[in-house]
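Methods: example folding runs. The two proteins below were folded one after another, and each record is reproduced exactly as written to the output file, sequence line first and structure-token line second.
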Amino acid sequence: MENDRQGAAPSADVQRRLYELMVLMKAADDRLSKGIASGELQCVYWPPRGQEAIAAAVGVCLRTDDQLVTTYRGLHDLIGKGVPLVEIYGEMLGRQVGASRGKGGTMHIARPESGVAMSTGIVGAGPPVAVGLAMAAQRKGIDRVTVVSFGDGATNTGSFHEAANMAALWDLPVVLLCQNNLYGEMTPVEHTMKVETIAERAQAYGMPGVRVDGNDPLAMVAALEEAVDRARSGGGPTLLDCVTFRFRGHYFGDPMAYIPAEQMAAAQLADPVPSFRAALASTGICSEHELEELDQAAVAAVEEALATVLAAEPASADELSRDVYADPTNCPV
């Protein structure tokens, strides 16, 4: 089923917040990419540039106590869920100010106080974890929804299908959020499945499957709000097929020879950040001055966070044995 952005548009404040998050995600990705390309920074990185509208919708639709499970391509998701930039950059660059004091790296960032349960480096590993979190909330009677973010390639894994079946069978409060950037690593999505859309896969499990324009933050909010409300009220899971694009390939430095030039050009014309900026200006939600202030604030926040991280100490050798055992004084030899 297609989402056609039914219902009232979000308030002006919510729309401003969406843009504020999106431009911060873009600025964070741009600065990290620039630093890696120049040799200033060293880390492995999977850029989400182009997928900001999806993560911004998560940021405005979820409560702090709701939980998110994301992936190694999760910079934007982490920002949307409220993880401080210092803790994100710190983890990526191996500094003690990182969310896990520099031990997790790019793939494994978690911050329970922001509701980020985990980031996974294994394709398709997130949905079963999210199902467990949702089951715990249901059994404990906790008013909490779990959203799990994954790419189109994850929907071809057994773990995704097992998790979807269990979530539907037990009416668990979970949203399966596919950030469908049309490529699983280097393979086009149409080469990896017989059905036309990922949303159709929900039919096999008796849950709603909704295809959404993942570049339209207002469409994303409408679809995600409905899915979250359904989950929170006991209606069970929803699969959201959020169609978007990634502008920097599977990994940073990916030459992207497998992407047709005309497809990339069309995707860049639909870049969600400048498109939403133009929409806010044309509808009068924001003035050009307000938008410029938000743009500048995002760049300043990124530079301030990066400066703090680069001035911080690297992860120390003491961290090797910290957090490994519940009782560090009585660990096996």
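Second run, written to the same file directly after the first:
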Amino acid sequence: MPGEYGCQNMVGRMRRALVKRPDEGFAVDDWERWHYAGPIDLEEAQKEHDAFSQMLRDEGIEVLYHPEPQPDHSDSIFTYDPAIVTDEGAIILRMGKPLRRGEEGPMARRLTELGVPIHYRIHGDATVEGGDTLWLDENTLALGQGFRTNAEGLTQMTEALEPLNVEVIPVELPYFFGPEACLHLMSLISFADADLAVIFSSLIPVPFWKLLNERGVDIIEVPEEEFDVMGTNVLALEPNRCLMLENTPITRGRLEEAGCTVLTYRGVEISLKTEGGPTCLTRPILRDR
């Protein structure tokens, strides 16, 4: 129903979010195939995820679960990636990582169950992953162009968002560690407020860096040692209140100096081993404007 979905910003107070609790499909034996740092301890992963989800509830967020089993789709706990939710409903994406193909159908079914209509489906040879989608404001979406989101994906996202009067701005991404690694646009930047972002400048394209400055965005630099442990991955719960991994003290301190309240969580199994931080673990369905 209208009023229960809509998420065309990164920082408005989060009201509803979809998460997927780790199950046997997450703790796979072939962890190297998934580019994980080591084998997953499922019991510990579930404890970490339960604590993470409780933190969201403690913030007044309605936490919804994505329970459909997805064998051989270990990355499906990262609910941010298979869809985005606009004011007109969900855009079901098409994963660029071949191992993640097949997550789209279960996500579409779950969002439909939750009353979110399907506005558009990325199709054909197009690929778009949610980690490459970054709302600069309600009418501007930055879209990473790398190994996960291609040029046809940009074309279709532009088509999908044109009726909503949303401009899509392409952002070319660097090679970094190549197609096997996970480098999304949101690997490089997160917003804590509409005009405050943490970034790893060394990998930010110059035109995009200039655009942020032209838009008056204050930049908090993430040091290299914390970029390696996802210091750039910050989930805004509301303006100037955010959630990040506990092992990022420098970035946390810089956010606090900028006036933010920062909550932290333990995510050895669900984040550090798997290259997926708090933004990846949540699919916001409803945020305040």
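Comment on the second run: The radius of gyration is 17 Å.
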